[in-house]
Amino acid sequence: MKPKLTLACTLAALMTCAVAADKKLPDGKSLLPADTLKAARRHAGPKPSGEFKTVDVGDQAFKQAIRVTVKEIPANPWTVQLSTLTSADAKEGDIVLASFWARCVESKAAGTTSEFLVYFGIPEGGVEHSIAQELSIGAKWTKVQVPARVAADYASGKAMLNLDFGYAVQTVEVAEIKVTNFARAVKLEDLPGSGF
Fold first, then answer.
1. Of 111, 122, 84, 77, whose CA–CA distance to 100 is shortest?
2. Rounded to an integer, what distance in angstroms lies between the CA atom of residue 65 and that of residue 175?
3. What does pTM read for this prediction?
């Protein structure tokens, strides 16, 4: 899987993340519905290859998460997927920040490390994507932040944020799924990232 973001960031990467996170950011506009846990479409394939369940979370500021269990590795990793359509327009060149919390509950291949992909764009029609980043996360809740420049004009309801889980037999929990649009009010390097 390339490129891969390992969220056990090095000290240098964490320091870089912290510098960006300390900058005061303007208020951005949400590109996703307010309640993404309810709005997210759950795809598990025809067999199905996976299952989804909303679970309570007791040790975080957020109270619920979606638990994704991949029961068998499908032919395509996007067969087991959470997908959320945008609820607002984005223009080519806008600066956005995709963010969510995630943790590995179990992985048959790697014990307490899960692998999945975060994608933002329009999958059909040859429109370029803005984010396609493969991730590796551990057992602790981790805030994933992926800044990007929007690659094309995206009309409301046409673009989507996808999380593809079908890389391994694994159980992953995700929460607080967001895409914030800062338009031209910030530079890409002003936004926090998760160490890449």
1. 84
2. 5
3. 0.85
